[in-house]
Amino acid sequence: MAPRYKKTVRDEVMQETRQLVIEAAAEEFAHNGYDKANVNRIAEAAGFAIGTVYNYFPSKRVLMLAFVDDIAQLHVDYVLAQVKSEQDPGQRIEAFFKAGFAFVETYTTQAKAIFNTLNGPDEEFRARLFQGYQPLFQLLSDDVIAPSIAQGDFRQVDPVATAGLLMLIYLGTGSQFSPEGELWMDYTQVADFVLHSLKSGKENLR
Amino acid sequence: MAPRYKKTVRDEVMQETRQLVIEAAAEEFAHNGYDKANVNRIAEAAGFAIGTVYNYFPSKRVLMLAFVDDIAQLHVDYVLAQVKSEQDPGQRIEAFFKAGFAFVETYTTQAKAIFNTLNGPDEEFRARLFQGYQPLFQLLSDDVIAPSIAQGDFRQVDPVATAGLLMLIYLGTGSQFSPEGELWMDYTQVADFVLHSLKSGKENLR
Amino acid sequence: MAPRYKKTVRDEVMQETRQLVIEAAAEEFAHNGYDKANVNRIAEAAGFAIGTVYNYFPSKRVLMLAFVDDIAQLHVDYVLAQVKSEQDPGQRIEAFFKAGFAFVETYTTQAKAIFNTLNGPDEEFRARLFQGYQPLFQLLSDDVIAPSIAQGDFRQVDPVATAGLLMLIYLGTGSQFSPEGELWMDYTQVADFVLHSLKSGKENLR
Amino acid sequence: MAPRYKKTVRDEVMQETRQLVIEAAAEEFAHNGYDKANVNRIAEAAGFAIGTVYNYFPSKRVLMLAFVDDIAQLHVDYVLAQVKSEQDPGQRIEAFFKAGFAFVETYTTQAKAIFNTLNGPDEEFRARLFQGYQPLFQLLSDDVIAPSIAQGDFRQVDPVATAGLLMLIYLGTGSQFSPEGELWMDYTQVADFVLHSLKSGKENLR
DNA sequence: TATGAATGAGAGTTCATTCAT
DNA sequence: AATGAATGAACTCTCATTCAT
Predict the structure, then answer these.
(1) Between C and D, how many residue pairs show a Cβ–Cβ distance under 8 A?
(2) pLDDT band at A26 (very low <50, low <70, confident <90, very high)
(3) How many CB atoms lie within 10 A of CB B14?
(4) Are D163 and D141 in contact (CB under 8 A)?
(5) For D38-86, what is each residue's pLDDT tens digit?
(6) What are the distances in angstroms from CA A28 to CA A102, A104, D159?
(7) Residue B5: which pLDDT band, with cuts at 50, 70 and 90?
């Protein structure tokens, strides 16, 4: 009988291989978009043979879905950790924006791919993206926007729609580069724009 | 020399053919994205043989660029006409949003394709899009936002960056559908969100 | 009833059109070879619409055959005239070479196309070429080589095969350019080579 | 690291596949010329799928160049071996002609394709052909013609130009078939023709 | 488990030819 | 007689996927 601990070692190796492939795929998807992305190139970039990639992912499509799940998870975890560390709703807003923009700044490549997918023509990809980002929408609407409204920090808006709009805005601004390769807006400008819109009139901003 | 009037008639027919092809292309590009768009399908949808498409556009790429130019022109003209008909900056804002959202609502397919392109990986397409939309950015920043700031209707923001952000937002919201096929937000919500952000504090909104 | 003389005028115009098309075709066939030759380009170069070319020649193939016939006729007439003007067989040889090389020099483009065709894979074209050049072979073997042998100027060779070989050599050398664009050999060298081979030993050459 | 010997075995298989494709290509190029040659037909003739051909050669053009290199190598090796086995310049001439004509007779298909290419309109193909045949020209002029002149066997001719002419003649005669499918001349006739031209007058030929 | 040569459906593009004007 | 827009068969090339080693 095969010893159990060996299996564990193998699992770890496989997890690592899987991750390497997904990372290479992210790069490729971000640079070329899903359709122009080339599985052979992904395999090469990951340091494996094409067959190996197909041992882990039965198709390019599944690889894309895995990448979407992966990045959504990462994004959600990243933002969740930072937001949850704050107790006060007002602080949570700031934390959310800081974390969201920081994520886009850190994972520009991936954010680009995600935004690309969000606006791409593939229904399944978009649906999967929504699904993966569900916790973030939840967090935003239930733990950030709704309490802020309740506290009177934000004016009355639809928390769910607003959550979607915020995602659209910060993924969009974070992946828009001018032909000269510069970002359109810096994040503080964007945060300013959004907070100006959401904050209720009673206070002065910043 | 060939008679001139005959040439004119022929030119008109050719213009019409060209337009039919571009319209079919718009549909195809919007539904499938550039890469998955199929030139044979475009030809068929336009009611011509494949060769005819290539008599007008030397490549799929050029056809795409022609579509981009075309839709940018349309969009610009559409919005420009409505905005210019208002004299008061405050009214112009409203007119701009009304026109912009109306455009996206009327030409949802095309707006989708444009937004898709705006966020796609192809540099040349993006550059061409920017170029085509230049007059709209100009209008927004010079004739709408800047005067509104001057009049004290808007708070101090960077007119150019804001113009870009507005485009991002209304093209984005106008082409986002939930998996169930419904728009995320209606345009009044979006206009509200934006105006809340831009209007200076002195007045009450809505 | 249509007047006869009008018909004659029309015929002349048509002859001229036909000739213009063939000349443009010669250029195209020489530069690009039959397969890459483009009928639209031929029409344009000739100054006519594509339809006009097809009014004169029912297919690209027939146009090629017409060109082959045309150039063969030209070549044959050209050489024949010069050779026939000499009475002495010895002089006829010189005349033949002079005329042959002069032809290749004058009509390099056409000679190239002809040589190209001679060595190309198309059986029908080659057969037509042979047919067109029949009078030249005849002349060469019957009126030049054979008499020269009879007079003892040439050694005993097969007149027909030698005629073919001579054609091969002077069309070949006349259309061979080094990558730098220069002719390999000048014609006197080639003539020297050939005459050295054919002349009987009794005399000194040149 | 992957074991080395396995790589070797695989390399051998790949070399064989490559060779099979080139051989099928030779046939196709010879029969139809480069332009009419069909890559699908080549793949089929080689016993592979179309994709396999493109795994080895990135384009039809590159396949053609590989074929040209291949046949030049073969031709050069073939003739070189036979000529080098003779020490006496006089014998080398005979050996060269024997080998050259034998090659053309053995590889008629390929010779046809090569001659076709030599006289075709494609500059790059011609240049590549020259490059590949360089050693043969070298051999002919330096080791065959020049020594023969030095020994007084040949009259004073330009060795380089003459080498070119000889190539032209024997590739030309070796690939010319009458419409009835027979060779124009047999090789002894051609050799005779050439030697009569080159040999110095002091001796009687045949 | 990893490999990578082989596969072949599918897509973009060309261009000789037609025919209504 | 001249025109040229329309046609579509044919061709080159790509690349996701398979499977024997």
Answers:
(1) 112
(2) very high
(3) 12
(4) yes
(5) 999 999 999 999 999 999 999 999 999 999 999 999 999 999 999 989 8
(6) 22, 17, 58
(7) very low
**Whether the Cβ atoms of residue D35 and residue D60 lie closer than 8 Å to each other:** no
What are the Cα distances from residue C123, in Å, to A61, A102, C117, C136, D33?
52, 72, 9, 20, 12
Report phi then psi at B63, rounded to 5. Answer: -60, -40
With an 8 Å Cβ cutoff, are A121 and B30 in contact? yes
| Domains of chain B and CATH, by start | 2-198 (1.10.357.10)
Measure A63 CA to E7 C1' (Å): 22
> Is-contact B161 A184, C-beta < 8 A?
yes
Name the minimum distance, in Å, from the CA of D1 to any CA of chain C: 46
Rounded Cα distance, A188 and A169, in Å: 13
Is B8 buried (19+), middle (13-18) or exposed (0-12) by CB count in 10 A? exposed
If one compares B205 and A78, the residue with the highest pLDDT of the two is A78
Q: Are B40 and B54 in contact (CB under 8 A)?
A: no
What is the three-class DSSP state of D177? strand
Q: With b meaning 16 or more CB within 10 Å and e meaning fewer, what string describes D121-159? A: bbeebbebbeebbebbbebbbebbbbbbbeeebbbebeb
Alpha-carbon distance B24 to B39, whole Å? Answer: 10
Q: Please list every residue in chain D whose beta carbon sits closer than 8 Å to the beta carbon of residue C175.
A: 119
- Measure the CA–CA gap between D39 and D59, rounded to whole angstroms: 9
pLDDT (tens digit per residue) in B141-178? 998 899 989 988 899 999 988 998 988 888 888 877 76
Q: Is A89 helix (H, G, I), strand (E, B) or coil?
A: helix
Q: Give the end-to-end CA distance of chain D in Å, rounded to a whole number.
A: 67
Q: Which residue of A has its CA nearest to B184?
A: A161
Type of residue found at C29: F
Structure confidence at residue A203 as a pLDDT band (50, 70, 90): very low
Q: Which residues of B touch A140 (CB under 8 A)?
A: none
Strand F positions with any atom < 7 Å from protein CB?
1-20
Which residues are paired to A177 by β-bridges? A183
